[in-house]
């Protein structure tokens, strides 16, 4: 019985020791990343050059079409590189990526220009995922409503074309260069349909 108690205590101490060490490394990394960082400053070495931002849209569901408004459930994945977010994992307990609060870093002010939502920006605030090489991922989910001219003359045998227009609200192209990330997608689709749930009323053509 004593042996079991000793083993249990040793395991508990080892686990606690590892947790404290990891916590200290993460705390130190966060403090170092925060040093001399201003989230309102574009993360570029040369301020005459644009920050390159990639946007990937993962469509989950086409919910409804009503009153010239298309409702979609989707994720938007924004990626860019922040040169001030580099660190050597060997110096911080082999931490290769970290989650940071949504107000910790600079982020692009990209909005859905043809939004029909009363709140305009319907995305949910989420944490950044930052890698040691400075790559930043921001992937807010959202239920978006898009203004769309729809003709139901030949319903349900017609085809509808609806545009989703994303862009920076205040930055010009010389300050923020936005690209659609269609890596691995067919030429027909510019949205990632990996998690798409088909709608029984509409067939998604592209």
Automatic annotation (TrEMBL):
Keywords: Cell membrane, Disulfide bond, Glycoprotein, Ion channel, Ion transport, Ligand-gated ion channel, Membrane, Postsynaptic cell membrane, Receptor, Signal, Synapse, Transmembrane, Transmembrane helix, Transport. Pfam families: Neur_chan_LBD. It is found in: Postsynaptic cell membrane. InterPro entries: Neur_chan_lig-bd, Neur_chan_lig-bd_sf, Neur_channel, Neurotransmitter_ion_chnl_CS, Nicotinic_acetylcholine_rcpt. PROSITE patterns: NEUROTR_ION_CHANNEL. Residues 1-22 form the signal peptide. Residues 26-204 form the Neurotransmitter-gated ion-channel ligand-binding domain. One of its GO terms (molecular function) is acetylcholine-gated monoatomic cation-selective channel activity. It is a multi-pass membrane protein. The keyword Transmembrane helix applies. GO terms for cellular component: postsynaptic membrane. Belongs to the ligand-gated ion channel (TC 1.A.9) family. Acetylcholine receptor (TC 1.A.9.1) subfamily. This is Neur_chan_LBD domain-containing protein. It comes from Haemonchus placei (Barber's pole worm).
